[in-house]
Q: What sequence folds into this?
């Protein structure tokens, strides 16, 4: 099934607020050129010192009434690393890499960087762009998949920032499509899995004794079920789980095509980093629970693939490099954590390609994608990725609600 096959305009003609003229009509894919004059790199943000940790976590959980005592339970992850999340430095590196790639191609597009939860904030980035005369922005969010927290929340923040700064009507923000199955995003993961399996086999581990765990951030089950367009039954876990499963299957199939013995390597999608109360269902199984059961299945080695993440930020350093590795040690099995895309040249080039397909209005038939679910939408469809707790808020780059 391609994204075009399940398009809806839902309730008749609709316009998209805060958007370029081309995207305002609400077409699922914009196939006409758009003269963007700036790129908005949007990310989550993270603390850069011990004194930042609790204020940062207050920003992350704003509106949920979580007391500081409970926030401190999460804060120890950051405090373990001196109160510094690596994500800001990684985004500085990504911004520089994007600028280098643009310069290499002779493309004059400035890159503005803003975060949702810590400095530099999105409103600062948008105001800087407007002050420089760059008012038609194309956004890249550092999240590849469809869910409230990985897509719609960014779009809501774009709308909020334009409204609060008084720049609505002056600045427009479109957004590149979710890039979970773009070749530039998939290639670094495929290379990492290939290397991990090859390393295990070189040490005498048989393919049937190897397990690949594709890990991503767990989200509340109710939110996951509302991820993606509402006119499709995505199955358990909604479009969020379906996208991860499709990419994982694509990677393992491609590797087995290269070497048929890899078909004997088992794999599954697992989840990490849940933070809700025990009474609230979140996507499972948990990666540590799965690792604990691997020896009983005859597994001697496990490749942990951070498929849901674009860089080695806190959820990778703590939940995978610390907790999952400890779980593997307790289970008595070998473990390797494969790389995230980071600033891999294929990934950086792919992000610029995503921008340029919107600049050029590239036809859908010519857009690269590695699974049958893509290429994903340029303009998010109605009721996509609802936040069950808070409902719908105004959002850029999509049709209301």
A:
């Amino acid at each position: 099934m391609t994204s075009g096959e399940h398009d809806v305009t839902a309730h008749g003609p609709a316009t998209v607020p805060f958007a370029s003229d081309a995207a305002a009509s609400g077409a699922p894919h914009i196939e006409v050129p758009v003269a963007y004059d700036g790129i908005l790199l949007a990310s989550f943000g993270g603390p850069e010192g011990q004194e930042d940790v609790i204020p940062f976590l207050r920003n992350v959980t704003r509106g949920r009434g979580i007391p500081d005592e409970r926030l401190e339970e999460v804060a120890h992850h950051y405090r373990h690393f001196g109160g510094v999340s690596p994500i800001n430095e990684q985004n500085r590196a990504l911004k520089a890499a994007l600028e280098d790639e643009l310069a290499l191609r002779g493309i004059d597009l400035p890159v503005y960087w803003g975060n949702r939860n810590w400095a530099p904030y999105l409103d600062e980035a948008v105001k800087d762009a407007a002050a420089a005369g760059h008012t038609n922005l194309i956004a890249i969010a550092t999240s590849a998949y469809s869910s409230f927290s990985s897509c719609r929340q960014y779009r809501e923040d774009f709308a909020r920032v334009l409204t609060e700064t008084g720049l609505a009507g002056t600045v427009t923000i479109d957004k590149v499509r979710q890039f979970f199955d773009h070749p530039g995003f998939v290639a670094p993961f495929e290379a990492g899995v290939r290397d991990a399996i090859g390393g295990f086999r070189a040490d005498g581990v048989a393919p049937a004794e190897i397990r690949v765990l594709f890990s991503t951030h767990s989200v509340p089950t109710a939110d996951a079920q509302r991820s993606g367009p509402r006119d499709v039954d995505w199955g358990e876990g909604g479009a969020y789980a379906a996208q991860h499963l499709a990419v994982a299957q694509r990677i393992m199939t491609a590797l087995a095509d290269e070497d048929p013995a890899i078909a004997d390597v088992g794999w599954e999608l697992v989840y990490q980093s849940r933070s809700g109360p025990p009474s609230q269902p979140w996507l499972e199984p948990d990666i540590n629970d799965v690792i604990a059961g691997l020896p009983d299945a005859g597994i001697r080695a496990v490749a942990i693939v951070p498929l849901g993440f674009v860089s080695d930020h806190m959820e990778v350093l703590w939940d995978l490099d610390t907790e999952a590795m400890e779980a593997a040690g307790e289970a008595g099995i070998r473990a390797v954590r494969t790389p995230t895309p980071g600033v891999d040249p294929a990934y950086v080039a792919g992000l610029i390609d995503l921008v340029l397909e919107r600049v050029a209005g590239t036809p859908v038939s010519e857009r690269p994608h590695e699974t049958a679910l893509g290429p994903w939408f340029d303009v998010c469809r109605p009721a996509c990725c609802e936040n069950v707790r808070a409902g719908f808020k105004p959002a850029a780059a999509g049709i209301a609600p």
User: Anything to note?
Assistant: The first strand starts at residue 38 and ends at 43. The first helix runs from residue 21 to 24.
